[in-house]
Automatic annotation (TrEMBL):
Protein name: Glucosamine-6-phosphate deaminase
GO molecular function: glucosamine-6-phosphate deaminase activity; identical protein binding
Gene that produces this protein: nagB
General function of this protein: Catalyzes the reversible isomerization-deamination of glucosamine 6-phosphate (GlcN6P) to form fructose 6-phosphate (Fru6P) and ammonium ion.
UniProt-listed Enzyme Commission number(s): 3.5.99.6
Gene3D superfamilies: 3.40.50.1360
Alphabetically ordered keywords of this record: Carbohydrate metabolism, Hydrolase
Domain of life: Bacteria
Active site: 68, 137, 139, 144
Catalytic function, reaction form: alpha-D-glucosamine 6-phosphate + H2O = beta-D-fructose 6-phosphate + NH4(+)
Pathway(s) per entry: Amino-sugar metabolism; N-acetylneuraminate degradation; D-fructose 6-phosphate from N-acetylneuraminate: step 5/5
Length: 252
């Protein structure tokens, strides 16, 4: 089931998302939470940090899984997703390092690296709440447009649009890794609940596709239509560009 939640602005979207995450952790302190990186969830992580500092939520017992990591970047690299999560959330809210799980971007054997993350997901999962962003091309995690869905953890060649979008985080576009290791869409769909955040109008077309009634691996996010519990949080800026949708029926 898809539910669209329209927020006035990015700050409200971040607060709404934080309330959903905090409720999950409060109701089940040992929750397994799937985290996403990128600019969109930064506000969410800031709000969760504030809630933690006020004593409104305790993250000590949660276990975490991140969607993806760049291939070739050590976890201490300034642009690694591990470093991103540690600086934006994990290092601020008392999460035990032993309970943080990431696919490794440094490996000798790519098959083994993927299998190891799959094993961790099976041992600790299923994920109770998965946080997602969405790419302008409809990618979720680093599941890029393709002819078929890949269900499990895998190595992906990043699309040119994704490299272009992520270049702003690097000194030069040539420094952006060309591959990533990512959860597959099957891993994402195994989560009990999913929240997807979209605050920029460039993501409106991708969000629209999720409500299209067409599941197409060339727009990976469309698979979310098959999940039982997905909340899509968008700003007014994005909602205003969602054409031909009966918002009265799907807005929560």
């Amino acid at each position: 089931m898809l539910q669209l939640i329209v927020c006035d602005h990015y700050e409200e979207l971040s607060r709404q998302a934080a309330r959903i995450v905090a409720k999950q952790v409060t109701n089940k302190p040992t929750s397994v939470i799937g985290f996403a990186t990128g600019s969109t969830p930064v506000g969410l992580y800031q709000e969760l940090t504030k809630m933690y500092q006020k004593g409104e939520v305790n993250f000590k017992q949660i276990r975490t899984f991140n969607l993806d990591e760049y291939v070739g970047l050590d976890k201490e690299h300034p642009q690694s997703y591990y470093r991103f999560m540690w600086e934006n959330l994990f290092g601020k809210v008392g999460i035990e390092k032993s309970q943080i799980h990431f696919p490794s971007g440094i490996f000798q054997d790519p098959v083994q690296a993927c299998n190891e993350y799959e094993s961790q997901l099976k041992k600790e999962g299923p994920i109770d709440l998965q946080i997602l962003g969405i790419g302008a091309n409809g990618h979720i995690g680093f599941n890029e447009p393709a002819e078929s869905f890949i269900l499990n953890t895998h190595i992906i060649q990043l699309a040119d649009k994704t490299i272009e979008a992520n270049a702003r985080f690097f000194r030069d576009k040539s420094e952006v890794p060309r591959q990533a290791i990512t959860m597959g869409v099957g891993n994402i769909m195994n989560a009990k609940k999913i929240i997807l955040l979209a605050s920029d109008k460039s993501k409106a077309k991708a969000v629209q596709s999720v409500f299209s009634s067409i599941v197409d691996p060339r727009v990976p996010a469309t698979i979310l239509q098959l999940h039982a519990d997905v909340s899509i949080l968008v700003t007014n800026e994005v909602a205003d560009l969602l054409k031909d949708l009966n918002l009265e029926q799907i807005v929560g």
